[in-house]
Design brief:
- 28% of the residues are buried.
- The chain has one domain (24-165): Galactose-binding domain-like (Jelly Rolls, Sandwich).
- The chain has one helix spanning 2-21; strands at residues 25-30, 34-36, 43-46, 49-52, 59-65, 76-85, 94-101, 109-117, 126-130, 133-134, 140-147, 157-165.
- The chain has one helix and twelve strands.
- β3 and β4 (49-52) form a beta hairpin.
C-alpha cells in the first residue's frame, strides 16, 4: 500500500511539473552573469553581483539571456525584470531589455527594446520591470545597464535578473 502511494505521489508531482513547464519559459540569473563590453567598462564581480568599479565614469554592463532556439511559436518576451542598487545621488541606473538581430550587416540591430531607470539613490534593491515585448525567432535577447560611478566609495550594482518567454 505504501509503495502504491509513493508511486501515485510521484506521478502526481510529474503531472504538475509538466503542466507548469508549458506556462512560460522563465530563467533567473545572478548579476555575476553580466560583463562589460570593453576594458573601459570597469565592471567588477563580487558575491554574485556586477558593479561599476570606477569612481569617475559610467560603465555599461551587458547581461546575456539564454533564448529557446528554433521555437517559432515563441514570439514574445512575456516579462522581464532586473534588480539593481542605485547608490549614486546624481545619476540613475538605466537598463534596457533588447531583442537584437545578430546577423545584421553592422553586427547587431535592436529590433525592439524597452528602457527603465531608477528614480534616484536607493539604499536597498530596486526591481526594474519590463512588460510584454515582441521577439522574433532569429533574434538574441540581452539586458544592458548603465551604472553610474561609485559615490562615497559605494558602487551601484546589478544583483540579478530574469526573463520569461511566452
Amino acid at each position: 500500500m505504501k509503495g502504491a502511494l509513493r508511486i501515485l505521489a510521484a506521478a502526481a508531482g510529474l503531472a504538475l511539473s509538466a503542466q507548469t513547464a508549458t506556462a512560460g519559459d522563465g530563467k533567473r540569473y545572478t548579476g555575476a552573469s553580466c560583463r562589460g563590453s570593453t576594458a573601459a567598462d570597469d565592471i567588477g564581480i563580487w558575491w554574485g553581483r556586477a558593479y561599476n568599479h570606477s569612481s569617475t565614469r559610467q560603465a555599461t554592463a551587458y547581461c546575456a539571456v539564454v533564448r529557446e532556439k528554433g521555437d517559432v511559436g515563441n514570439d514574445w518576451i512575456e516579462k522581464a525584470d532586473i534588480d539593481v542598487y542605485d547608490r549614486n545621488s546624481t545619476s540613475d541606473v538605466t537598463c534596457t531589455l533588447a531583442a537584437v538581430n545578430p546577423s545584421s550587416a553592422d553586427g547587431g540591430i535592436m529590433l525592439t527594446y524597452q528602457r527603465r531607470s531608477t528614480a534616484g539613490y536607493s539604499p536597498g534593491t530596486v526591481r526594474l520591470r519590463f512588460g510584454r515585448m515582441k521577439a522574433y525567432p532569429w533574434e538574441g535577447h540581452l539586458i544592458y545597464c548603465s551604472l553610474p560611478p561609485r559615490q562615497a566609495g559605494v558602487a551601484s550594482e546589478i544583483t540579478g535578473y530574469g526573463v520569461v518567454e511566452e
